[in-house]
Design goal:
With about 950 residues, the protein is an alpha+beta fold. Helix content is about 35%, strand content about 20%.
Length: about 950
């Protein structure tokens, strides 16, 4: 049976399967209505087709399609309470008698496992879920759970339910200062407490709490652990209350006898926050305006909070303010939003846990280069005594636009991918591919999305009040899609510009998803109060600029040390990375190392100065963030200390995998300790693999099959042509890079020649690209399978939010041994820290290295970097226990650790730099000149051996083995 009727029937059957699989207490008021967006209020053929399509690509349907499917279902009229301790099935859970001041049965859920609850639903309706939880000690990350209804995830957003932790400053910002008078960023510490929240979309693309369709009758709800342990005392299925209008709020306040507070004024410093939902929300420093308090034109003052760290939907900051009496108070925030040009950022304002009227759900902070007072135009109700004011990041009315834009981008990327499957990434301009006949559904999508883009442009201008840079992109792309529909032959000629326009839409989505605001002070005042000036006057600003200019000649802004060079007993540590990382390390030294050991540290931020300083005899005691090849290069010149001679060396090195130490080992001596350790993983697109009925590969034969299937559809797989890729094949074939204790290259051995042949064949026989932008091509789907360093995970999390939930990662393919085992060994590497030979305080320097590489400090260092720079900066520490304690999900951590156990390092030997250089030369000759792999490799091995021999002779090293063994 074919044709439109059969397709509609199949779609309806798929939707029916989804339907079959889905099945008022104090403080949580019941709403009078549940608002569903008009454009998805009624189910129809499009909605059912979307459901069917989503189910066939192996992923749960998006929430918008789920609401469209159930648009005719009324909201719940009552409420159902679930007591989590009463489970009908659980794993990894325990029942507690009391916790956090609450008595009664409490369900403590672990980082893995699940809890299933049975409920008897009295009416078919849409229910929203309220959950009361207490974060349990874990790795300090967000608590994440997924929710299944009768064994099925109802929609994609239910796979990631986020429950924030609570943090507070260990000391008040400004109370800690260094020798130069600069404020130090206070450490954050967790402040666990009972929290209650409606389950919302973690991405922030849905303004209202998530709704779940439940048929009347018995159902089973399952909460599965994804990340971090948490205790739960109650779950309520109801519908979230809607805040009243401003008029209703003011009428209610007037009837309660509340009045405005006249000239009352209280100013609160925003950096003195009471609680925060994220460890990234630390105090910041601003020296751009003398009106910012506290102010210093030269020194660092922790005087603001927010910025880019406070930009992800769901993050919140709380302040506790005390007022003398009940009344109506105005709230004004001296703030600056100079991040999102042409638009605004949004916050949800609640007072004592309540959004008092609807306007506070969408409190806007428009773009501006300077500081200004912003806040709601209508007062809020405060009670005598302490009040909790919370600002939470939301997308506000922009959420619907971003959600629609992401749907458009996914649809256009899918259309682009289908075109590429016919034409290839570089179409022949002289060939007519007859795309309109082969891909009629693509041209229907072009027509539909052109209309959607024009409507998006209208809605965007209505929301922002003007035309921005995105408007031009929307209009240009809409015109291009119309031209494609009218002249299908234009598609192949303008494919590159089409891809570029889609990329511009994706860039806009990424920028709008981030909602950063920086706040200096909060004013609680009456209508007659005179607020402090938001901006400094001309004379004050002029004085500020003059003082800052003069101070630049006298003040050393690169000085990070808490003690001066030459201080008795101090050691000197050089950091060869960014200032942010150096500042974090300085903070840890000041708060932990020096107080605990009594050893002063002079910390310096340097770039490319270690070698000349060491040659001149003026190097540091300890150098951090050194490249993987540096320790051995310094060691063969007797410039670094052998760390294996220290008595506690075995206890210190037990923190790392053996493979992490190998690159820093020579002749049985170890000349550095590993800081970072990275290794490759296999990343793949779930949706595309499902479309093509592909599975993640176990062996390289599987990988080659995947590459061939992808290429048949004009897509491709990716493997970076670097020496670590060759190392993966080499180690899986039981080969080695060097033999004879590093005196000769091992690449002439049989295993190495076979590894080189297999590696180069991927590019010569299977046409893998040797140069590409992995993140961009993975995002568009042109390259849905790539082998990349595991930190690629961080990059995707930041740069490709629209494909969240559509990709995964796993171990690298392996080679099957004769005994049936699968060898998945891979080559890895990382940075190191080392002690210079000219150090005059070697015991103190070793104490520092011991402290710096310890479990606790590596964890705190990684957490602070991530809190300051975001998830994309997750620290790839070499310390095994610290790595396990970083905020990975339990599943991701398990996959990474499985691969990490199979990591082997590439040794460093004198003259070893010729290995990577000539492996690259051999690869290029095979690829571009079509030379025979074995002969080419062996030719370059002779050159490598000559350089190793020459370097050992030059350095006066034992060259034994150069005779008969070298021939």
């Amino acid at each position: 049976m074919t044709g439109p009727v059969s397709r509609r029937l199949l779609a309806a059957l798929a939707a029916a399967l989804v339907l079959l699989s889905s099945g008022g207490q104090a403080g949580i008021p019941v709403a009078s209505a549940l608002v569903i967006p008009a454009d998805i209020a009624s189910p129809g053929d499009a909605a059912f087709a979307a459901v069917a399509a989503a189910r066939t690509d192996g992923t749960a349907i998006p929430y918008r399609d789920y609401l469209a499917l159930h648009g005719g279902t009324p909201p719940a009229s009552g409420s159902l309470e679930i007591l989590p301790a009463e489970t009908v099935g659980a794993e990894g859970c325990t029942v507690l008698a009391s916790l956090g001041g609450w008595n009664g049965p409490i369900l403590a859920t672990g980082e893995t496992g699940f809890a299933t609850f049975e409920i008897d639903v009295p009416e078919t309706a849409l229910y929203q879920a309220w959950i009361e939880y207490y974060p349990l000690p874990g790795r300090g990350g967000l608590v994440e759970r997924s929710l299944q209804v009768d064994g099925t995830v109802p929609f994609r957003e239910a796979e990631r339910i986020v429950l924030p932790r609570v943090f507070r400053d260990s000391v008040r910002p400004g109370d800690l200062r260094d020798r130069l008078g600069n404020d130090l960023i206070p450490l954050l510490e967790e402040d666990p407490r009972w929290e209650g929240t409606w389950i919302r979309d973690a991405s922030g693309l849905q303004a209202d709490p998530l709704s779940f369709h439940l048929e009347a009758g018995l159902h089973r709800l399952t909460l599965s652990s994804v990340r971090e342990p948490v205790a739960i005392r109650r779950i309520l299925l109801a519908r979230a209350s809607q805040a009243p209008s401003v008029t209703e709020f003011l009428n209610d306040a007037a009837s309660g006898g509340l009045t405005d507070m006249g000239a009352y004024l209280q100013v609160v410093q925003a950096e003195q926050a009471g609680a925060k939902s994220d460890s990234t929300l630390v105090a910041r420093s601003d020296r751009t305006s003398p009106a910012t308090f506290p102010y210093d034109p030269v020194r660092i003052r922790m005087n603001t909070i927010g910025g880019r760290a406070w930009s992800t939907p769901g993050q919140w900051i709380e302040w506790v303010v005390r007022v003398p009496e009940d009344g109506l108070y105005r709230l004004s925030f001296r703030s600056r939003q100079n991040y999102l040009s042409g638009s605004f950022c949004t916050r949800r304002l609640s007072v004592n846990g309540e959004v008092q009227y609807r306007d506070l759900e969408d409190l806007r902070f428009p773009y501006g280069l300077d500081w200004d007072w912003r806040g709601p135009a209508t007062p809020v109700r405060l009670q005598a005594g302490d009040n909790v004011i919370r600002l939470e990041v939301t997308l506000g009315q922009a959420a619907d636009l971003v959600s629609r834009m992401e749907a458009i981008i996914l649809d256009l990327n899918r259309a682009y991918r289908k075109v590429v499957m016919v034409t290839g990434a570089v179409p022949d301009p002289f060939r007519d591919y007859l795309l309109d006949r082969k891909l009629p559904e693509v041209f229907a999508a072009f027509s539909d999305q052109a209309k959607a883009l024009r409507q998006m442009n209208v809605d965007l201008m209505a929301l922002t009040g003007g035309r921005g840079s995105l408007s031009a992109v929307l209009q240009s792309l809409a015109v291009q899609l119309d031209e494609f529909t009218e002249r299908p032959e234009e598609v192949q000629n303008r494919l590159a510009s089409f891809k570029s326009n889609i990329g511009a839409l994706g860039t806009w989505v990424i920028s709008v998803r981030q909602q950063p605001i920086e706040i200096d002070t909060i004013a609680i005042h009456g209508p007659d109060a005179l607020l402090p000036p938001a901006r400094a006057g001309f004379l004050r600003s002029l004085a500020h600029e003059i003082r800052s200019f003069l101070a630049s000649f006298l003040f050393d802004y690169s000085d990070l040390g808490d003690v001066e060079t030459g201080t008795a007993g101090a050691i000197e540590v050089w950091v060869q990375t960014g200032r942010d990382q150096a500042s974090i390390l300085k903070e840890l030294i000041d708060n932990d190392f020096t107080p605990g050991t009594g050893i002063p540290v002079v910390l310096k931020l340097v770039q490319n100065q270690l070698l000349p300083a060491t040659v001149a005899g003026r190097g540091p005691d300890v150098a951090l963030q050194c490249g993987g090849a540096e320790p051995i290069n310094y060691a063969i010149r007797s410039a670094v200390e052998d760390l294996s001679a220290f008595p506690t060396f075995p206890q210190v090195t037990a923190r790392f995998r053996d493979s992490a130490l190998l690159p820093f080992t020579l002749d049985g001596k170890v000349f550095a300790l590993p800081e970072t350790h990275t290794f490759p993983m296999f990343f793949y697109r779930l949706d595309i693999f499902a479309e093509l009925s592909l599975q993640p590969p176990d062996t390289w034969d599987d990988f080659r099959t995947i590459a061939a299937r992808l290429q048949k559809n004009n897509m491709n797989a990716g493997l970076q042509p670097i020496i670590h890729s060759l190392g993966t094949f080499l180690y899986q074939l039981d080969g080695t890079f060097y033999i004879d204790d590093g005196r000769r290259s091992g690449l002439s051995e049989t295993a190495a020649v076979e590894a080189f042949r297999l590696w180069t064949a991927l590019y010569t026989d299977y046409s893998l690209p040797y140069r590409y932008d992995a993140a961009n091509r993975f995002r568009t789907g042109e390259m849905p399978a790539v082998i990349e360093d595991y930190t690629f995970f961080n990059l995707l999390s930041l740069s490709a939010p629209e494909i969240w939930g559509l990709w995964d990662f796993g171990p690298v393919p392996g080679i099957r041994k004769q005994d049936g085992t699968l060898d998945r060994d891979v080559a890895g590497g990382g940075n190191a820290c080392m002690m210079l030979r000219n150090s005059r305080a070697k015991e103190k320097a070793w104490a520092f290295l011991d402290w710096y590489t310890s479990d606790a400090i590596q964890l705190r260092f990684g957490q602070r970097i991530e809190s300051l720079l975001g998830t994309s900066a997750r620290y790839p520490t070499a310390n095994v226990e610290a790595f396990r304690s970083l905020p990975w999900t339990a599943r991701d951590l398990g996959v990474l650790e499985d691969q990490w156990r199979s990591v082997r390092a590439i040794p460093e030997v004198p003259g070893g730099y010729y290995t990577s250089r000539h492996v690259n030369n051999a690869f290029r000759r095979v690829l571009f000149q079509e030379d025979e792999p074995k002969e080419t490799l062996l030719e370059y091995v002779e050159v490598i051996d000559d350089e190793i021999r020459s370097k050992r002779n030059e350095l006066g090293l034992d060259a034994e083995g150069d005779g008969d063994d070298a021939e």
